[in-house]
């Protein structure tokens, strides 16, 4: 039986934290900043923990236990 392959697109975008969550960049950060407040722009910088409802999907993509 062949080995399963890791989804390379997901591997480049998300990392698993020590406690099993996933860390990734924020959405809505590529353009149209004139429609966002300074507070929104500031809070979109850096990385954030992924929502718990999507962790199962990410684990499948990255083949983690």
TrEMBL record:
GO terms for biological process: translation. One of its GO terms (molecular function) is structural constituent of ribosome. One of its GO terms (cellular component) is ribosome. Keywords: Ribonucleoprotein, Ribosomal protein. SUPFAM superfamilies: L35p-like (SSF143034). It comes from the Bacteria. PROSITE patterns: RIBOSOMAL_L35. Belongs to the bacterial ribosomal protein bL35 family. This is Large ribosomal subunit protein bL35. The lineage of its organism: Bacteria, Bacillati, Bacillota, Bacilli, Lactobacillales.
């Amino acid at each position: 039986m062949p080995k399963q392959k890791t989804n390379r697109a997901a591997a480049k975008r998300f990392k698993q934290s020590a406690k099993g969550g996933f860390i990734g960049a924020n959405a809505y950060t590529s353009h149209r900043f004139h429609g966002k407040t300074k507070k929104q722009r500031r809070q979109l910088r850096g990385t954030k923990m992924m929502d718990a409802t999507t962790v199962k999907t990410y684990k499948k993509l990255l083949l983690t236990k």
